[in-house]
Write a structure and sequence with these properties.
Layout: E1 5-7, E2 10-12, E3 16-18, H1 27-34, E4 41-42, E5 59-62, E6 65-68, H2 77-87, E7 96-100, H3 105-117, E8 123-127, H4 143-153, E9 161-165, H5 171-181, E10 188-191, E11 195-199, E12 201-202, E13 207-208, E14 216-221, H6 225-238, E15 244-248, H7 254-263, E16 267-270, H8 272-277, H9 280-296
Parallel strand pairs: 3-16, 4-7, 7-8, 8-9, 9-10, 10-15, 15-16
Antiparallel strand pairs: 1-2, 5-6, 6-14, 11-14, 12-13
Helix pairs in contact: 4-5, 5-6, 6-7, 7-9
Ligand YRO is lined by residues 21, 45, 68-72, 101, 127, 129-130, 193-194, 218.
């Protein structure tokens, strides 16, 4: 039984890792992930300078998931570059992902230029849930801006690059985004970021549960799994085969992991459940996934990846 997987030239002994933002703010957090059963680690999305993020409470766990409006707290680009450069040769069997989320077009280009010019050999993830122009939606929902930034990025960036996408809810949006992404030599697409601007309410207090944005925040967990599966499935059918899919959203059991792989995911990221359970989640979910595979008679992920049946 093997949970081994690949993205391009990268091999992972285990298909599970953290989702950016969870258990990856500090080098201690990221080393915890690398010392667990996870097959890789991704950094918190970096901005050029360190950021404190939004006032607390800014993350709230509920039985069916989570809501957050963290506001991109992070230790700054240089901190994460130093971490990945210092780590990459120590754990070559666990490839690294460096997430960046500039607050403007130029911030993204500046950070990617520095990664290009560095000796970093891992994967880079561009978080397209960043704001760009005032009065316009996040870049991932502004298809013109998405194409503009990828055009500029691929004019100089030659290292393995993926994009983290927000969820889409309309078939035409899947098609329009896939048509744009297919124009570029992307290594992977990661679906999904949190479902934006949900509202969770504490009925006893008759109140919102997080302070920023009057309580509005990104949803994760059980609430988002069907949306995540639809995004993974849609992009696996619409994107060229050279672009791998990373599946993120609502994975808390081996069954959830199996479903994401059936939809076409090559690597799986865990956010809300990692926040709730800690890094022991990787061992448990790996065991459960292996149990599901054993019951079904599968020995490798390749035997069922992307093989979802329709009726
Ligand atoms: O609030 C965050 O730091 C955050 N939370 C998420 O669920 N997804 C994200 O991508 C981010 C960082 C990016 C942004 C939403 C603050 C622009």
């Amino acid at each position: 039984m093997s949970l081994k997987t690949t993205i391009n030239q990268f091999t992972f002994e285990n298909c599970l890792m953290n989702a950016s933002g969870v258990h990856c703010l500090t080098s201690t957090d990221m080393l915890d992930v690398l010392n667990s059963d996870a097959g890789a680690v991704i950094t918190k999305s970096a901005t050029p300078q360190e950021r404190a993020g939004n006032p607390s409470p800014r993350y709230f766990d509920v039985p069916l998931g989570s809501i957050n409006s963290m506001g991109l707290p992070n230790n700054g680009f240089d901190y994460y570059l130093e971490f990945v450069l210092g780590q990459q040769d120590k754990t070559p069997e666990k490839p690294l992902f460096f997430s960046v989320a500039g607050m403007s077009f130029n911030e993204n280009i500046d950070m990617l230029t520095k990664i290009q010019e560095s000796t970093y050999t891992g994967l880079t993830e561009l978080n397209l849930s960043c704001p760009n122009l005032p009065g316009k939606p996040q870049v991932g929902y502004d298809f013109e801006q998405t194409e503009l930034i990828l055009t500029e990025v691929f004019s100089f960036f030659t290292k393995p690059l993926g994009v983290k996408l927000p969820p889409y809810f309309d078939i035409v949006h899947f098609e329009q985004m896939a048509d744009i992404l297919n124009k570029f030599p992307l290594t992977y697409v990661n679906s999904i970021n949190s479902i934006g601007n949900g509202l969770y309410i504490d009925i006893d207090a008759e109140s919102v549960v997080i302070k920023p944005k009057n309580g509005f925040g990104g949803l994760g967990g059980d609430y988002v799994k069907p949306t995540a599966l639809a995004n993974v499935r849609a992009f696996r059918t619409l994107l060229k085969p050279e672009i791998a899919i990373v599946g993120t959203g609502g994975i808390k059991s081996g069954q959830d992991a199996f479903e994401h792989i059936l939809c076409g995911a090559s690597m799986l990221q865990i956010g809300t459940q990692l926040q709730k359970e800690g890094t022991a989640a990787f061992e448990r979910i790996s065991r459960e996934l292996a149990e599901v595979m054993a019951e079904k008679g599968y020995q490798t992920l390749d035997e069922f990846r992307g093989k979802l049946k329709t009726i």
